[in-house]
Every structure is written in C-alpha cells, then in structure tokens.
Amino acid sequence: MGTAKVEHRCTECGTTSPRWLGRCPSCGAWSTLVEACAPSRAASGTALLPTSTVVPISAIDLEGWGARSTGMAELDRVLGGGLVPGSVTLVGGEPGIGKSTLLLQVLAAMAGAGARALLVTAEESASQVGLRARRLRISAPSLHLVADASLPSVLAHVSTGRPDVVVIDSIQTLFDPELGAPPGSVTQVRECAQRLVAAAKDHGVSVVLVGHVTKEGSLAGPRVLEHVVDTVLSFEGDRHHALRLVRAVKHRFGSTDELGLFEMTETGLVGVPDPSGLFLGDRRPGVPGSVVAPIMEGHRPLLVEVQALVSPSTLAQPRRSAQGLDHGRLALVLAVLGARLGHRGFAAADVHASAVGGVRVVEPGVDLAVALALVSSVTGHALPADLVACGEVGLGGELRVGVHAQQRRAARRRGCIPRRRVSVVTRDQRSHAAMSASGPRVSS
Ligand code: TYD
Ligand code: MG
After folding, report:
1. What residues flank ligand 1, with Cβ below 6 Å?
2. What is the pLDDT of residue 276?
3. Are strands 16-17 and 5-10 parallel, antiparallel or unpaired?
4. What local confidence, expressed as pLDDT, does residue 12 receive?
5. CA 20/CA 33 separation, integer angstroms
6. Nearest ligand to the CA atom of 132
7. Do residues 374 and 259 both lie within one domain?
8. Residue 170 CA: distances (Å) to CA of 63, 90, 174, 184, 437
9. Do residue 107 and residue 212 come from a single domain?
10. In whole angstroms, what is the distance from residue 91 CA to residue 172 CA?
11. How much is the pTM?
12. Are residue 117 and residue 133 in the same domain, yes or no?
C-alpha cells in the first residue's frame, strides 16, 4: 500500500505544491497554501478488482429520466425540453439581473405540476424570499424553502426529503465548514459543486446552482464550475431595460443554439415567444442614423434598431462609443468607410453607435446596418423606415451575406416593418454601390 503524502494546496485556485510557499505560484495569492494530504496510490502489482458493473448500452433503463419541463416555455426551449433528473445546471448572471426571481418562478411552476421542489437560500433570509414569493403571487404548497448555507446540512435535506428539483441560491455562499477555506473561494465553490453533482446523480434530483458573474463576465471560481456541471446557462440583460436573455453556454443534453427571451415585469419574468418587432416599438421614423438589422439569436431572428450619431468633437481623441455592439467591429466599419469609401467625416467626430433595447449584438452580420446608420447620420439623410439591412463588411470594402437569409427575411414580414422592402445583401457585393457618397442606398 502507498502512504499518504503531505502536499500544499492553494485555497484560492486549488494549485498544489510539494512544499509550502508564501505566495501561490499559479494565482499569485499570498498565504493561501495549506497542508493537504495527497491521495495515495496502490503499490504496483496489487490486483485491482472493479467496483462497478459493465452493461450493454441498450440495457440501460431510461424510464423516468426524461427532461422535466420547467413550466417556463422560454427556458425549456434553451434546455431542449427541461431539466434532466440527476443533472446539475448552473445559472450564471450579474447580481440583480433576476436569477432568484427566475428560479423561484421555475420552482413554483414545477411544484404546481406535481414535482417536489426545494429552494435552498444561502444568501437571503427566508422572509426575504417569502416577500418575493408574495410579490410573484406564488403559493404552491409543495414548494419548500430552507435558509441554510452549510453544505453537509443541505446534502442531508436532499437525501432525506428526496426532492425532484433543488435550487441552491447561490453556490458562492454555500460552504463546507470542514474545508477551512472561506465561502466563495475556489476550493469551496468547487468542492460544494462536486458534492452536489454526486448527490444529484445518487438521488436522481435535478439541481440548479445560481452563480454570480463578476463585472468582467467570469463566474467566480475561474471556470472551475463549468467543468463540473452538466449545463451552464447565462442569464443576461441590461438592468435598465426589461429584456432578459437566457442562453446555454454548455449543454450536455442538447444544443447550445437556442435563446430564451423574457421581460422583467412588476410581477416577475414573462416569456416573449415572438420577439419580431420587440425592439421597434419606440422607433422614430425619418431620423437620420437609424436602420433595422435582422440579427440571428439561435434559430430565431430578431429585428433590432441600430442607431448612430456622428457629431463634431472637441476632444483631441474623438469619442467612440458602442452600446450593445462590438467596439472592434465599430472601429472596423469606421476604418472601411474612411479608407475604402472616402468618408472623411468621422475622423474629427465623436461617434456613438448602439443596438436599441438592451440587446447585445455580436454577429458580424450587423456591420452593414452600422455602416448605413453611420453614413446616414454623417450625411443627414434619413433611411427609409422599411429598410432592413444585413451583411458583414470586409476589410476590402466588400459585403458578405450572413447565414440564415431566409429567416431574416421572414422576420421582416412578421415584424413591424410596414412596406414590402427588405434589403438583405445576397452575394459578395461591393459596398461602393451600397453606400455612395450622396447618401446610402442598398440594393438586394
Ligand atoms: P433578483 O431575482 O433578486 O436578481 P438576482 O438574484 O440575479 O440578484 O432580481 C432583482 C431585480 O429584479 C430587482 O431589481 C427587482 C426586480 N424585480 C422586478 O422587476 N419584478 C419582480 O417581480 C421581482 C421579483 C424583481
Ligand atoms: Mg439573487
């Protein structure tokens, strides 16, 4: 038999070192290395006996292991049906975005459909959750709540209460007192998640972990959780707008293509099944610098208004602001307009560009809309209210068609675009024709 060896483990990032160091060589944290026992290895030559059984894959009993609906169609769309028993789903999002609200609604809906649902609140008190439930008019008798932050106690509740679905709010506040590391440290977050994964598999319970995302966009505990869990959902939105988006970053049981849309209302989150025209309600026609772009989110096209404002700058280095749009792509479009089309009006001007409504557009297909809005603003020519533009701008000044042109056209038909005109650029067309110096015109 091998003997247990002492090593030193960082309580922040989990890195191990054979000797004690004042500073962790991996994450750079000071005084975080603590003694830990390295796992012993069986001496070579020892006969190994399996503790598990090999079975034919066709003989696996799948009865009762189908996904359970969350009761919220937009979330089911992202999950490919619902929560799989025995799985662990991590819901990440910035503080205040609505994670606790979403999951309380999910538990209430699942409890209403007959599931035994348990909410573990490790962050808020029971009365705070009770107040939220009252605001959301939730009164499902089979929805239970426990205010507890201790992992062993939570695991005991799971094994004795045998719930079908458990929400832990949040994984960063849950801790195992035996680990010695502070709550929220990587060691705690990872250990707690690993033991919850094991408990989920043992009892066939669907576990949902709430994880706070830092301002930089990473889940606290550098990505350790993403490897441990089955599904990672990202809950996004702009706190100043009502729109909330749910997308799967990782999903062991289905695609990561779908997007769920919700609106935050006075009485919680309400699904938005048909988003065409969602962002066009406040649009003012006839204003230069505005155009509609059909962007693809998963398999669903969304019509988004792209706005630009170009104004004379008093700054040595003129301002470039992109809200809901990628800064890099705005810079690229400005460079192409200047270098390839000879638009000199941007050099000494402040440029503001935005995707309206709190949506974040990352696909390059929005380039043409950005270019048209910029040229429209700098020339003062308003674009036709029924114009929908989509295409990627290349460094040579060429336009490339985005994928899903059919769906984008269909979105225009279902949306609030009044007349029969849609300009989705179809092949590699030279943008010279599209954006002539006299003002923008787009041919399809
Ligand atoms: P919350 O679910 O507590 O966010 P998180 O758990 O991600 O930190 O939601 C916080 C915000 O949501 C808060 O600013 C109030 C708002 N809200 C509503 O607009 N309507 C509602 O019905 C509820 C419950 C919250
Ligand atoms: Mg919360």
Report:
1. 93, 95-101, 132, 135-136, 264, 266-268
2. 66
3. antiparallel
4. 77
5. 7
6. 1
7. no
8. 31, 10, 7, 10, 55
9. yes
10. 12
11. 0.73
12. yes
CATH number of the domain within which 413 lies: 3.30.230.10
Measured from the CA of 170, which atom of ligand 1 is nearest? Answer: 6
Question: Residue 16's domain spans which residues?
Answer: 6-37
pLDDT band at 269 (very low <50, low <70, confident <90, very high): very high
Testing ligand 1's pocket by substitution, the residue of 124, 214, 264, 270 carrying the most ligand atoms inside 8 A of its CB is: 264
Query: Residue whose CA is closest, atom 9 of ligand 1?
Result: 98
444 domain residue, yes or no:
no
Residue closest by Cα to atom 16 of ligand 1: 98
Residue among 88, 142, 156, 80 nearest 112 (CA): 142
List, for residues 2-32, the tens digit of each pLDDT value.
455 778 888 777 788 888 889 888 888 888 8
Q: Helices 99-112 & 126-135, crossing angle to 10 degrees?
A: 70
171 belongs to a structural domain? yes
Do 158 and 76 share a domain, yes or no?
yes
Sheet holding 392-393, edge to edge: 392-393, 398-400, 429-430
C-alpha gyration radius of the chain: 27
- Regarding whether 411 and 336 lie in a shared domain, the answer is yes
Q: Kindly give the distance from the C-alpha atom of residue 58 to the centroid of ligand 2, in angstroms, as a whole number.
A: 42
Domain count, the chain: 3
Say how many Å lie between the CA of residue 100 and the centre of ligand 2: 4
Rounded to the nearest integer, the mean pLDDT of the chain is 84
Is 246 found in the same domain as 145?
Answer: yes
255: tokens are 């695609």
Q: DSSP alpha helices (H): ranges in 80-125?
A: 99-112
Are 302 and 283 part of one and the same domain?
yes
